[in-house]
User: Fold this.
Amino acid sequence: MSDTATFHWSAQSKSGSRKAKNDDSFLVFSAGIDGATELEANSNNPLDKEDLIFAVSDGMGGGNAGYLASSLILKSLTFLIPKTFKSAAQGFHPDYLELLEQQIKEVHASINEKAASSDELKGMGATLTLAWFTPENLYVAHAGDSRLYLFRNGETTQITQDHSFTWRKFNRGVLNERQYRTDPKRSVLCEVIGGGHRRVRPTVAAIPYQKGDRFMLCSDGIIDGCWEKHIHKALSENSNSTRTAADALITRAVDNDGTDDTTLIVIDIR
Assistant:
């Protein structure tokens, strides 16, 4: 984008009624040559001196393992992503998509290594949906069934694809939305960070963005309680307030279901 854009966002997370601890994590941070700076859950920032990164992760595993996995994944990225800027300052210009994929594979290996160190952490893992905004592009990294949506010009589009066999059946038209939502294998994921899986194959993509866009990252707790029409309605309304849009979505999701942890970040580009 040629003109400096200002980003407004609101992030929220609520524990599910069936769980003692919230296994979801979210993170908002800026990154530049001097490293990463964690930002508040509800704030705004111009995209002038540093990039902005938003991420949601849904942890899995017994005890504290799920929360530990999701929080470790996000914290690791605050160390890895700023390395890009140091490389650029030295005259190297790595491919963002290749870099993201490599960084996620590094995190995947470290999560599995930590899980192997303790029986209590065995099998811990997490999803990841990450949105990295630079002045030129949005770079997306995704593994699992957390999601990224875009609301633009009156239309809502799901940018990411759930990494599950049930999602593939839904995409082929074998299942409708109701059948997909109630399928007992919906949460069986074929891609996840950690989880004892030998490897991870994250989806990475570069997407142009523009002023007026609204994005939402969310864990599957939002999907449990909100149909696609509810997501579109909330994102299309409340155009002047990311917090109001986030409140509407998380309230509906929790009221309609609320059994799982529920997390989202709504982002406006102005």
User: Anything to note?
Assistant: The chain has a mean pLDDT of 93.
